[in-house]
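Q: I have 268 residues here and want to know how they pack in 3D. Can you give me a structure?
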Amino acid sequence: MNETAETHAIRAELALDGGRRLSYLDFGGAGRPLVALHGHMSEGATFADLAARLGDEWRVIAPDQRGHGASDRAADYSREGYLADLLALFDHLGLEQAVLLGHSLGAINAYQFAARHPGRVAALINAEAPVELGLDGGNPLAFVLSLPYAAPTREALVAGMGPAAPYFSDRLRQSADGSWRLPFHPQDIYDSEELVHGSHWADWTASACPALVIRGAKGGVVSAEQAREMAERRPGTEVAELATDHLIYTADPVGFGGVVADFLAGVA
């Protein structure tokens, strides 16, 4: 383990099937555990601001999900694959129960995990993840296939990313041979998005713990109508809106931290 200067968290890893490594950040403290799951093309370090805002009452643990950040690529990006990683993390950390918070892909993983392991989840926080997605066809992340995965120098990789460079250039990784790469493989992201599509109402309504849906009211992917239906069909669910887009917790960290803290204050 080592402490990263950027986040003041402890980075560690666990070995999964075939020696594949799952990396995670543990923001520490003696508070109750909250596992935070990022979305596609992101990583656990993006929850550093939230961890700081929640303070000592919560111990935030944020993995880099398979194929993201410092975690190894996987052979597949199936629903069950992501959930198996999460169960392994819970068991590795000795978490009998934790709050699960997720954004986009991470929130779908969170509520599907709660559906399969309800006793392990004290509460759910769903940031910008619908229960029906991709039903109209097409992959909204197809644009990533045009991105270069690696280049001999950081400058060359940034140049090759074109308009996408501002979104990823601060998270590039240097490989052992000195070359630079993205913190994800474009084909993995495309495949993962394809495999998350579907209607997940059965999973959303399968758990009974307290839940919060946070939607971005200005360009988010969860409509007001679907958020309302999610609350109506799942008892114990609250809805909050922030005047921002899909990247809700990085676009409005103050507002996001506030609604999360308010919800957590009522979690027994």
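Q: Anything worth noting?
A: Residues 2-137+198-265 form a domain with the Rossmann fold fold (CATH 3.40.50.1820). Residues 1-7 have pLDDT under 50 and may be disordered.
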